[in-house]
Amino acid sequence: MNLPKKLISWYIENKREMPWRQTTDPYRIWLSEIILQQTRVAQGLPYYLSFTEAFPTVHDLANASEEEVLKLWQGLGYYSRGRNLHAAAKYIVEDLEGIFPNTYKELLKLKGVGDYTASAIASISFNEPTAVVDGNVYRVLSRLFGIDTPINSTQGIKEFKQLAQELIDKEQPANFNQAIMEFGAIQCKPQNPYCLHCIFNDSCVALQKNKVHTLPVKLKKTKVKNRYLHYLVFRSSDNKTVIERRTGKGIWQGLYQFPMIEGAFDGVRFRESEPFLEKTANYTLENVSQYNETPVIHKLSHQHLHTTFWIIDVAQLPEDAIAIETLKSYPVPVLISNFIEKYGFNLESF
C-alpha cells in the first residue's frame, strides 16, 4: 500500500470528530482554518461554534461591525486574523456578489489567506488537488523522509511544498490533506510521538536514524523584546472610566484599552515622570495607587509585555468617559479582559 492510501486509511479509522469535518461549505472551512491558525483545536473549537452561531453565513459576517467581530475574537490572539476575516467577508459579499472563490488561485486573493489556507479550502470544498503544508505536515514529512532543511527557510518552504504536492492523492485530496495534518496532530506529535504503534515505523527515516526528536529543524527565533506598559485606570465618583481605541498597525489594532504609557519606570519615578504628568494634566487627581506591585507578564510570540495597572481616582472625567458597567461590551486585549474579570465587573474590589 502506498503512502497516501496508507495515511487516508489511518485517518478514516482514527480521525477526531470536528464540526468542520461535517461540511464542505467553503465559508465554514475558511472560518475553521483561520481560527485554527497558530491555535490549538481545544482552544479554537468554542470560537468556531460562537462564530458560526453569530454569523451563520458570509453575508452575516460581512454585515457585522468590526467591533462585533473583534469582541467575539477576544482572547484568541493574533487579532489581525479577525480583522482580515471581516475584510475578506466584505470583499466576497460586495465585490464577488456573495459567491465564494472556488479555486486555489482565486482564494489567495482573499485578505489573510495564504498558501496553506487556500490549499485547505480548495481541496476540502472544491476537490482541487493542492497540498496543505502546516506545522503538522512539516513534522510528518521531515521525520518520514529524514529531511533536515529548516522548515522556516525559503528553501525549506519550497522543498516541503513540492514534496507534499508530489504525495497528494489526486483522487482524494481532501482526505489526504486532512489525514496528514491529523496524523501530525495526534500520532507524530512534537513531543513523545507514538513511534512504537506508528503505521510507518518500518520506513520512517527519523526513527531508523534516531533523529525523531531533532526533526524538523527550525531556524532560531527572533530575539524576544521586553516592553513595559503602564495602564491608567481612571475612576470618577459617578463610576465612569476612560478607554481609548488602539490605532496604527501594531498589536491589538482596533481593540480598546485604558490610557497607556510605555517605559521602564519604577513606582515613584513613574508618578513623577513627564509622560504621567502630561497624561493626567487635565484631571484633578484625588488618589493614585499602584494596583499590582509585580508587573503582570503577558507573553506574545516576539515580545513580553510587563504590565502595571494604576488606579487613579478623580473628581470628574470628560464627556467621552464611559460607564464602568459597560466595559465588558468593548473588545479588549486579553490582559485587559483578565484585569476586568479578576477584580470585578464594576471594579468594586479596587
UniProtKB/TrEMBL annotation:
Cofactor note text: Binds 1 [4Fe-4S] cluster.
All residue ranges annotated as the HhH-GPD domain in the record: 35-186
Catalyzed reactions per annotation: Hydrolyzes free adenine bases from 7,8-dihydro-8-oxoguanine:adenine mismatched double-stranded DNA, leaving an apurinic site
UniProt keyword DNA damage, yes or no: yes
Enzyme class: hydrolase
Keyword DNA damage set for record: yes
GO molecular function (one): purine-specific mismatch base pair DNA N-glycosylase activity
EC number: 3.2.2.31
Cofactor section: [4Fe-4S] cluster
Pfam families per UniProt: HHH, HhH-GPD, NUDIX_4
This protein's UniProt keywords: 4Fe-4S, DNA damage, DNA repair, Glycosidase, Hydrolase, Iron, Iron-sulfur, Metal-binding
SMART domains (UniProt xref): ENDO3c
PANTHER family documented for this protein: ADENINE DNA GLYCOSYLASE (PTHR42944)
Record function comment: Adenine glycosylase active on G-A mispairs. MutY also corrects error-prone DNA synthesis past GO lesions which are due to the oxidatively damaged form of guanine: 7,8-dihydro-8-oxoguanine (8-oxo-dGTP).
UniProt record similarity statement: Belongs to the Nth/MutY family.
Protein name: Adenine DNA glycosylase
Species annotation: Dokdonia ponticola
Lineage of the organism: Bacteria, Pseudomonadati, Bacteroidota, Flavobacteriia, Flavobacteriales
Gene name, Swiss-Prot/TrEMBL: mutY
